[in-house]
Amino acid sequence: MRTPVFELHIRPMFRATDHEHMTFAVDLWDYDSVVANADNILSRLDGAGMPPDDEGGPWPEEWIALFRRWNDSGHKRLQLGTATFAFSAGATTVTVTATGTFPAAGFSGWLQLENETDTAKTYVLSYEAPDAPVPGTPAAFTLKERYRATDTRSVFVRDSTGVQQLH
Q1: Can you list the alpha helix ranges (DSSP code H) found in the chain?
Q2: Which ranges of 13-103 would DSSP assign to H, the alpha helix?
């Protein structure tokens, strides 16, 4: 069974109402804050019927089990990757390309739209480490994201070196 990952499996379970109601004690959308409070969060999810019905209702048992598995397995999270980025506009599509080499064998990665406004869109390059070390050499990668050429917003990419503007 795959090890749960904060950004893929845990963070999406915290609803906006959960986040808003718990900001006095913990930032449920922040990895470090959730890790520091994971045992307390789990005890509240387990025994107290949290969140209460008038604030979205308790989590389903499978969500609680997933959170427990993430907590018990060491709080896995994604890593920011590093790559060389390119931007190319064609007649109908725009392509954002990331080219690089993973840090070790068995890693996977992707570009994902992280944020968009009326004037800009920001992608993030994420790496996921394998659950256990994989023998071999790190693989080279080329990752692409495409969107319609009619979208003329500025394009930014966030990776382990910071944020860079491509267009």
Answers
A1: 16-22, 31-36, 38-47, 61-72
A2: 16-22, 31-36, 38-47, 61-72
